[in-house]
Write a structure and sequence with these properties.
- The protein is of the alpha/beta class and about 475 residues long.
- The chain is built from 16 helices and 17 strands.
- It has 2 domains: about 260 residues, Metal-dependent hydrolases (TIM Barrel, Alpha-Beta Barrel); about 190 residues, Alpha-Beta Barrel (TIM Barrel), CATH 3.20.20.70.
- The structure holds iron/sulfur cluster.
Length: about 475
C-alpha cells in the first residue's frame, strides 16, 4: 500500500511571479506529489492581489489567496485603493488580507505613511473578520506596536488574528506576537547552514503557534538555496522544524497544518464540516443547512463555497448543540445586534433544530431573525399559519425572499421544486406572519430586468416592508 504523505500547507508564496512564466500547473502538481495540499498565494499590491485571487478561482482545490498592499508602495494607498482591495476580498478563495506591514530596510515609502496604511488595512481586515499576513523587515518593534494598537479595533474573529510571515526578528518579538494572538511563520532561512542562532530560537518557539512557508519564488531552502523556490520545497523547511523540535515530520505537519487551517479557515478535506456560524457586520449568522427547495439562478451557492472567508458549504449539518457552541465561541448572543438563521440554504428545512436553538438563544436574551425563502412549509407538510404559530414565540423578525411580483417570474427566477404553488406559499407565509404580529421584510435580489417597484408594491400590500438586496448580498 502506498502511504499518503502528511498534509502540509505552504502559507505564503507568490505564484503570480514572473519567474513561473504563468505556468503554475506543473508547480502545483509537484507540490501535491509531496503532500503539500494547499498554497496561499499572496498579493503585494492591487495588481498582484487580482492575480492571486484569479489563481485561487482557477485552482480552488489547492490555491487560496491573500490580498493587500505591502509597505513599499504605501504612498499609493487611499480610500479608492482600499475599497478595491476590499472588493477583492469578496472573491471566492480569498482567505486573508496581506501582505501588509512595515519595511524599514527599503523605506520606499516614509515610515509614517507605512504605519498609517498598515493600521488602516488592519482595521479593514478586522471588520471583515479576515486574518492578516504581516510583512516586517527591520521594523519588528514598530510592527508589534501597530498590532498592539489594532488590538483595540472591533474583533470579528477569534485568534489567530494573523501571521508574521517569514519571521526574522528576535525571540521577544515572536513571543509578543503570540501573546497578541498571531502565529509565526517560518521560512526557508531556518534551513541555511549559517542560521544557527535562528535555528535555536525557532526550536524554542511552541509548535502550536508556528506555520511554515516558502515565500516562493524567493528564499529557497537548503540545499536549493539560490534557486527558484516553489511550494513543494516547504517540506524541507518543515523537516528542519521537526528536527529542531525533536518530533517526527508527521507530527510537525499535523500541528502546523492544523494551525494554518485555523488561521485561514481552510477546510480539512478529511473531516472539516465547514462554518456553522459566521459574523458579518454586527450580526451572527447560523448556518443550519445547505439544502434548499429552490434553485435560484442568482444563488451565491452556485458560484462559491462561502462568503468573506467563511466556509459555508458544509461537510455535514450541525445539531442544535453545535450551533449553540458556535454562538458561545463567537462571544455569546449578547455580543450581536441580531442572531440570524440563514443557512447557506433554506434554514426552515431544519425546523426542529431552528426551534430548539432559537428557544435557548431567546431565553438568553438574543434578538432573532430568520431569513427564509418562505416555502419550506410545503416540504414540512405544514400550512403557513401552523409554521408561524411555532416560530412566533421565539422569533423577532422574518426576512422572506420574494424576488418576483407574479408566479411566472418567480418560477423563472427561483426554480422552486413545487413550481407555481411555491409563489402562493410565499405570500401565505408573509400574510400569516403579519397577522400574528411578526414583522416581515420581503427582499428581492437586484438583477437586470427585475420589476423592483412591482415587488415592493406586492410586499407592502401584504403588510411587509421591502428591501432590495445587492447581488451576492
Ligand atoms: S432560496 Fe436562497 S439558498 Fe435557496 S436557492 Fe434561492 S438564493 Fe439559494
Amino acid at each position: 500500500m502506498i502511504e499518503r504523505p502528511p498534509a502540509v500547507i505552504d502559507t505564503h508564496a507568490h505564484l503570480d511571479d514572473a519567474r513561473y512564466n504563468g505556468r503554475v500547473e506543473p508547480v502545483l502538481a509537484r507540490m501535491r506529489a509531496v503532500g503539500v495540499e494547499r498554497v496561499v498565494s499572496i498579493g503585494i499590491d492591487l495588481s498582484t492581489s487580482r492575480e492571486a485571487a484569479a489563481l485561487a478561482e482557477e485552482y480552488p482545490a489547492v490555491v487560496s489567496a491573500a490580498v493587500g498592499l505591502m509597505p513599499h508602495d504605501a504612498s499609493e494607498y487611499d480610500a479608492d485603493y482600499a475599497e478595491a482591495l476590499e472588493e477583492l476580498t469578496r472573491r471566492p478563495g480569498v482567505v486573508a488580507w496581506g501582505e501588509i506591514g512595515l519595511d524599514y530596510h527599503h523605506q520606499r515609502s516614509p515610515a509614517e505613511v507605512q504605519r498609517r496604511v498598515f493600521l488602516d488595512q488592519l482595521r479593514r481586515a478586522r471588520l471583515l473578520g479576515l486574518p492578516v499576513v504581516v510583512h516586517s523587515r527591520e521594523a519588528h518593534d514598530d510592527t508589534l506596536d501597530v498590532l498592539e494598537e489594532a488590538a483595540g479595533f472591533p474583533l470579528l474573529r477569534q485568534p489567530p488574528l494573523g501571521v508574521l510571515h517569514c519571521f526574522s526578528g528576535a525571540e521577544r518579538h515572536a513571543r509578543r506576537a503570540i501573546e497578541l494572538g498571531y502565529l509565526v511563520s517560518i521560512g526557508g532561512v531556518v534551513t541555511f547552514k549559517n542560521a544557527r542562532d535562528f535555528q535555536a530560537l525557532v526550536g524554542r518557539l511552541p509548535l502550536e503557534h508556528l506555520v511554515v512557508e516558502t515565500d516562493a519564488p524567493y528564499l529557497a531552502p537548503h540545499p536549493r538555496r539560490g534557486k527558484r523556490n516553489e511550494p513543494a520545497l516547504v517540506t524541507l523547511t518543515l523537516a528542519k522544524l521537526a528536527e529542531l523540535h525533536g518530533v517526527d515530520y508527521g507530527e510537525a505537519a499535523r500541528i502546523t497544518t492544523g494551525n494554518a487551517r485555523r488561521l485561514f479557515r481552510l477546510p480539512d478535506p478529511a473531516n472539516d464540516p465547514g462554518d456553522f456560524c459566521y459574523q458579518l457586520g454586527s450580526n451572527l449568522y447560523l448556518n443550519a443547512t445547505n439544502r434548499c427547495n429552490n434553485d435560484c439562478g442568482f444563488c451565491v451557492r452556485r458560484r462559491k463555497l462561502g462568503l468573506a472567508g467563511h466556509r459555508l458549504w458544509l461537510g455535514r449539518e450541525p445539531e442544535s448543540s453545535e450551533l449553540l457552541e458556535c454562538v458561545d465561541e463567537a462571544g455569546g448572543p449578547e455580543r450581536f445586534r441580531e442572531v440570524v438563521f440563514c443557512g447557506y440554504g433554506e434554514p426552515l428545512l431544519r425546523l426542529e433544530v431552528v426551534l430548539k436553538t432559537a428557544s435557548e438563544l431567546k431565553r438568553r436574551g438574543a434578538r432573532l431573525r430568520i431569513d427564509t425563502n418562505g416555502t419550506a412549509q410545503l416540504e414540512l407538510g405544514l400550512d403557513a399559519s401552523e409554521l408561524i404559530a411555532r416560530l412566533r414565540p421565539v422569533i423577532d423578525h422574518l426576512n422572506v425572499s420574494l424576488n418576483a411580483a407574479d408566479a411566472e417570474s418567480y418560477v423563472r427566477l427561483c426554480r422552486p421544486s413545487r413550481g407555481a404553488a411555491a409563489f402562493e406559499a410565499v405570500k401565505e407565509l408573509v400574510r400569516a406572519a403579519i397577522d400574528s404580529g411578526l414583522p416581515v421584510t420581503c427582499t428581492a435580489v437586484e438583477q437586470p430586468g427585475l420589476e423592483a417597484e412591482a415587488i415592493r408594491r406586492l410586499a407592502e400590500d401584504l403588510g411587509a416592508s421591502f428591501r432590495l438586496r445587492a447581488f451576492n448580498d
